[in-house]
Amino acid sequence: MDRLAVDGGMPVRTEKIYYGRQWIDEEDVKAVSEVLTSDFVTCGPKVAELERALAEYTGAGYAVAVSNGTAALHCACIAAGIGPGDEVITTPLTFAASANCALYCGAQPVFADVDPKTYNIDPASIESHITEKTKAVVAVDFTGQAAKIREIREICDKHGLIFIEDAAHSIGTKYEGKPAGSLADMTCFSFHPVKTITSGEGGAVTANDRELYKKLVLAHTHGITHEEEQMEEGPHEGPWYYEQISLGYNYRMTDFQAALLLSQLKKLDRFAERRKEIVRRYNEAFQMLPEIIVQEEIPESDTCRHLYIIRLDLEKLACTRRQFYDAMAAENVQCQIHYVPVYWFPYYRHLGYKKGLCPNAEEIYKGIVSIPLYPRMTGQDVEDVIRAVEKIVQHYRK
Fold this sequence. Notes:
With about 400 residues, this protein is of the alpha/beta class. It has 13 helices and 15 strands.
């Protein structure tokens, strides 16, 4: 039985809508089925085909498909040579993996604050946190909007830092006309089901430098090579021969995941356009509500948005964020919160991080709510989400 909505009446819709959802069609199912009945389920030709397609789509020189977005970030840190004693600057307004990847390598994450209007990492704050220990910057394209790539690139070049773009949210986004994936030293993608395209779990790293590419390949395949030019003991005794020349991990993607992603990649532009249509409608509607703050976008970013975040002006509403969240659920609109500042977590607190490090990020976190955004939403779905927000705002308006 439906729960009563905020005004005691029935919800604006009868079926629940979630904040994100994959779109798998018959073409995708067929692509996966063909691999499952082929000779290769993993370590086969589809992964190589996918890597070529990702490199072509993003404009990067090379792409390495991996098991998930976290593995992509870890591999990028390994390829960057990050280790104990190093510092890696990132944002607190992100999923924990953007910072954890530094810890995996024995380095220390350093949190720079975000721009209060775009919610992306602030280049000025990056600059202020650079020390002689700084080795890299992991800049997140939060919600899918490109970070200030040009400014961050200049800072990294000035200080001799590796620029890693965490593009887990931004496949399909362009910055100054160039696709995410071709702009930083390395760019990391995620293909989780709520992202714009999916392989179930899955990720990738793109790079333009061949030496970085070779290190990425080793990092995700146990540090093992079949290439004679990389071997220390070679030459080959036979086709079975390989050498482990570094410490790596099993972060490989399967062929059936690659087949699914190849099929999804063909739909990326269509998915991106639908997301943009929904974002435009949301922006139009919510700009009419003074209680709702809309995330601003820089003109350089042609954004394929993964998340649509509204920010509640709680001084104008007689409710808490939790009450608003619960009221949306009662309207059968399931929201989410992205994200708790990373250094607020107990694990980071035990490492010595304290609240107050990034005031902008902490203030933004207090009011943000992610509402449904995915390409399979119908026009009626979109209007129902808008009506739910308007209804709740009206109910709690001071």
